[in-house]
Amino acid sequence: MTLDQLTTALSKDQRAHDRALSEYKQALQYYHGHQLQSQELAKLQSRGQIPIHENIFKMICDKILGYKIQARTEIKVNGRQEQDKVLASLLTDLLKVFAQSDDYDKEIYTRDFNLLLGLAVVELWCEKDAEGFYHINIKSIPTDSFLIDCFSQDKNALDASRFHKKQHIALCEVKSIIPDKEIYLTQDDIADQRAFIIETWAKEYDEQTRTLSWNRYLWNPNGGIYKTEIMPFKDNLHPFVISKYQIDEQNNFYGIFRDIKPLQDYINFAENKMANMLGTQKALFEIDAVDDIDEFVENIAKDNAIVAVRSGSLSEKKIEFIQHHADLQALSMKSEQKRNMARVLSGLNDEALAQATNRQSGVAIAQRRDAGLLGLQYFIQSSDAMDRLIYQRVLSFMQHYFNKKQVFAIAEKRRAVRYFSINDSAENTLKIGSFDLVYNTQLKMQGREERFAHWSEILKTIANIRPDIVSELLPLMLKDTDSQIVEDIEEVLENANTTQNENASAQNKMLEQETQMQLAKLQAQIEKLQSESQKLQAQSSIINQMSKQASLEAQEPQDKDAQKMKFYKNNISKVDLR
Length: 578
Fold this sequence. Notes:
Layout: H1 3-16, H2 18-31, H3 38-46, H4 56-69, E1 72-79, H5 85-99, H6 104-117, E2 119-128, E3 134-141, E4 146-148, E5 162-170, H7 171-177, E6 185-188, E7 193-206, E8 211-220, E9 224-229, E10 240-244, E11 246-247, E12 253-254, H8 257-279, E13 282-285, H9 293-300, E14 319-322, H10 325-346, H11 362-372, H12 377-401, E15 406-411, E16 417-422, E17 435-442, H13 448-465, H14 470-480, H15 486-574
């Protein structure tokens, strides 16, 4: 793009966003308490009245942001292919390291605040340190210094073809980025030299490669184009992640301020009007009721005034003081209606705003608080969608730039630091792939007392079924109830478990020794029984042999008598008995 093209694009985008940006700036003024116009302040000053404003807008914004800070978040990367499961787990750890960086919480809070006012912009940048390692930084861009393509209609500006970031930076910083150019200075003095730099990112078509690429231009309308970078990032993307809270029929972004501003203005008007009516009075009198009109007017306006009038003037009611009790009551009722309407539009009720004064049970208060937080779901959904885009862009940077061996530290749930490395083996080498990102946010809708009561009921139920896991659930209960003694309880439980394990090991050794002694005793008894059995077997064999011998000896005489008888018969048969 040429300088004329850049200037024309900037002016068109500026005109398209003038109304939305002025509304955003006014929302900032109202949030910080500058809610009365200069004419109203001059009027109040002229009559000596102290300005009054009731900042409902700040109260609602702080409540919403407070609930968002307490929300639980969960990040998980899922690989689309089965072989990407290990790499997805590694990328999940890398995203947790990114979420635990020093500036992450601060920048995310600024992002949520800007999103609530209408538009949030986050810049992600991949920087290289002296050792050659890449680190991903996150920075929230002020809304009033950023312009989006005037033709963009997407809530996250995914259809935009150009962006402009305006910034006033010190000359020394400009020289580090643009070393060989003469810079046009907007402020040139001895103490401070600053330059106005416009950073434009444009999607352009390259005739040679026949592809679209995001190109970066650093320029100034008076100084010309300082630097041009063709496709600065390897993934051919711009570094911005954008989210709009709402978009009206004229394609202007706006936040929660647009709906609450009329109510806020009326409440401020009513409060100042009632203060004026309480501090002033009106009196009607007939001319013949007083001797000196000027003296009467001057004295009757004082707080402690004693004014003399003509005789009979009061009895004849020639002097009448006008009171504003009915007007005060009407204004007060109308202001209360506007306060209730502001709560309804914000999506919060009295319980969520901690303003409930009616006497109810704890369960009823918790139910009404949960119902009052349902209005936050749209804001949470918008914030989650932007977080998902942020992490997708971070994943893209990691896959393209984290190509060296590097060690990271990550804090686990129990604040234990775990170290892991990348690109030192085939399993943990980062490669470009397709992954799905799961990002869930859950609000802590209940207070500490309600959560503690619920956990007490849960522990009572589990104690009857599985009493062995109650001690393991105790730290989880303390964490959920935001208790400050979680670490102390975990240390006590760990020491108790260590002592129990040591005692159990000692008891196991004693039981093992007793078991060995019992086994040795049983073995001795078995051997004794075996020896006695062998002895009995030997005695039994001897007895059997003796009985056999005795039976043989008993059979020998009988055999001799039988032989003699046979011999005698044979001899008789041979004798002639005739």
